[in-house]
What does this fold into?
Amino acid sequence: MEKIKIDDFLNYKFLSNMEFSPNGKNTAFILHNMNLESNNYDSNIHIYNASNNNTLKLTSTDEELYFKWMNENEIVFPSFRDSNDLKRKDDFETFTPFYKININGGEANRFFEIPMSVNSFEFIDKDNIIFTGKFDHSKRDFDNLSLEDKLESKDYLIMDELPFWGNGKGDINKLRNPAYIYNISSGEIKQINDNFTNTLLIQLNGDNTKALILSRTFKDMEPLKMDLSLYDIEKGELKLLDSDNYIYSFADFIQDKIIFIGTDMKRYGMKENPHIFTMDLDGNNLQQISDNSFDSPAGSTIGSDCRYGSYRSFKVDGDFLYFLTTEGDSSNLKRINLNGDIENLTESLGSIDGIDISDGKIQFIGLRNLKLQELYSLNGEENQITHFNDWIYDKRSISKPEAISFDTDGVTIHGWVMKPVNFDSNKKYPTILNIHGGPKTAFGETFFHEMQYWTNKGYGVIFCNPRGSDGKGNEFADIRGRYGSIDYEDLMNFTDFCIENYEFIDENRLGVTGGSYGGFMTNWIIGHTDRFKAAASQRSISNWFSFFGTTDIGYFFTEDQQSSTPWDNPEKLWALSPLKYANRVTTPTLFIHSAEDFRCWAPEALQMFSALKYHGVDSRVCLFKDENHELSRSGMPKHRIKRLKEITEWFDKYL
It folds into this structure.
């Protein structure tokens, strides 16, 4: 077996956007792979036919990110593949061209275009679609400007609301996402909600006569809670059913009712696990159908650096709502009926990333049993359909995580130890503590390229789910106002437990790293202990004051998660900021950050770096241009290689 190389992930295949055809006979999905030459991702539509167990590549322009079935044989997708369209786009013309392709053969043909930037769409019938499109209040007259004035307008930003930018979105000030209906034959566009509305989800009923719409309408500051509305397509009437009561994860029609997943945040704040409710179509007779003992998140929150694209986590099919949730250290599929009976449909280790269901037939994209993503079917048992990534198990050395657990303060902490490849029990090995983000996410037995690479380089790797993590209920996950306390204790106790029980770990050569919340904890750890000989802090938080005022979520995340604002309890915010303790740091620290990370903006790393340099600690910043908070998961291939190279060489230097 060959060792895993730093650039092996260039050959990994990632699957997303799986969707059954209307008759359930075929499955379409997007297959992504990295392209080092273009420094981007090649993305094409593929079709799986269950009748002959055959998978074929449908498109080849490498730019298809999403699509919709128009009927059993035809797929429609947006694409800028025509040279004239590309020129129009370069000249700042706003429009979205759509193409249609038959899955039985033939080329994709230009179908229609919408004179807006389209974000999502669904077919109502063969001649009408419902879609969401970008509306920019700050550039209403942009199309009438000269080319010179259009170019000049790119030189400055106007900010007069919160949030003023968004991670992965850039400048979003006065930018909204209303819903519309478009008639393909006439080109007529009919707007559904107003120009200050962000439409988050649209679900059509069985005969496509009504639509459920989740949205937020605001001026000045976007709220956390959402609105649920019912739109009568035939009458053109929009009715508000619920406003400002829930954060919704999902809503859809089921039988003659509405079913939704949501939380009112009353007990555990914005990260509170949701419940499942029903209501009548007029918004009355609200009922919680999930039992109060149900205490799990919506969707998969199991981490990995081997995904790309978007996924469906919920689907109504027949009399059931199918949904993904994380329990313990795996995410699996469940379903619930209107009586509130919940049935577990899967129980394997790893993560189910996305699902679709058609008349009880289930398929999903998953990271199962330490494998990279593949397409699976579920019929009592999980059956792997595709084999895009089997090669890595045939040709590369894989380190299997060993599950461990220990008790602290009356709670059980679960974690894993990964031994170096070609492990020799007579040797001591440098070991890296890896900390997940969130904090309300979880590690599980999923494939992580970075950790597999480190074990192939001769490192041990340890990681766990401290308090604050997902999968063990609200009480376990609730560390509001206590970041850096019980979670820090859990991580240090976990490290001690690993050293005591695994003789190969060299306690004099320990490293620590993590991203986002894991970056915050890395910054916190180096200010509270000198046991780690090297640290790599990624997309971190160092100062809750600056985080509050500069990031896309800071104004609500800080208040909710730290139970403080800069005005009502500034002493607490400063006490919870790793920057306060920077004068204590002796650990050589690398900071990995992205210049367009608006989730944890670059000043978070730069402040901590400056403080360490000021106090004579060896430190270094690698700041990636044109990248955001998702650098390690969906950044440009060359940047992802450089990031992992920087971290590994830093640990090589000190460990």
